[in-house]
Design brief:
Residues 32-101 form the Cupin type-2 domain. The protein is globular and about 40 Å long. The chain has helices spanning 8-13, 115-123; strands spanning 19-24, 29-35, 50-57, 60-64, 67-71, 76-79, 85-89, 95-102, 111-112. Helix content is 11%, strand content 38%. The relative contact order is 0.27.
Length: 133
């Protein structure tokens, strides 16, 4: 198998899409996100999925399990499965991050230009992760 390699900060910075799935494995998934000024991921809970987010640029708030913490470039936040969370852009520039889900949360290769598009596809059942059945 070939080495799968990304210069992840550069890869994340060059994408203006709200969400872009870069890689999907059987047990984990790598996703880059760009949250516009005054935007947010949206409050959610992943019942059976752990999530690790690393912030590449911008400023924001991590709202996880009832606590709020400022996030900036270089910060990493862990969201254990079953924990209510949201990430909000509080700065004048996009909040850029990459995240790892375990197991995968989104359809392999999914690209969602906006949060609205992402929400519509999720509600329509068109953003389902691959299954290993």
């Amino acid at each position: 198998m070939a080495v799968i390699h990304y210069t992840i900060a550069t890869e994340a910075e060059k994408s203006a899409d709200f969400r872009r799935v870069l890689w999907t494995g059987d047990k984990t998934q790598l996703v880059i996100m760009t949250i516009p000024p005054d935007g947010e991921i949206g409050e959610e809970v992943h019942e059976d999925i752990d999530q690790i987010l690393t912030f590449v640029s911008g400023t924001g708030e991590a709202r996880v399990g009832g606590s709020t913490k400022k996030v900036v470039q270089g910060d990493l936040v862990v969201v254990p499965a079953g924990t209510k969370h949201n990430f909000v852009n509080t700065g004048p520039n996009p909040l850029v991050l990459y995240t790892v889900y375990g197991p995968p949360e989104h359809a392999d290769g999914a690209v969602h230009a906006t949060k609205e598009e992402a929400d519509e596809l999720e509600e329509a059942g068109k953003d389902e992760p691959p299954t290993s059945d």
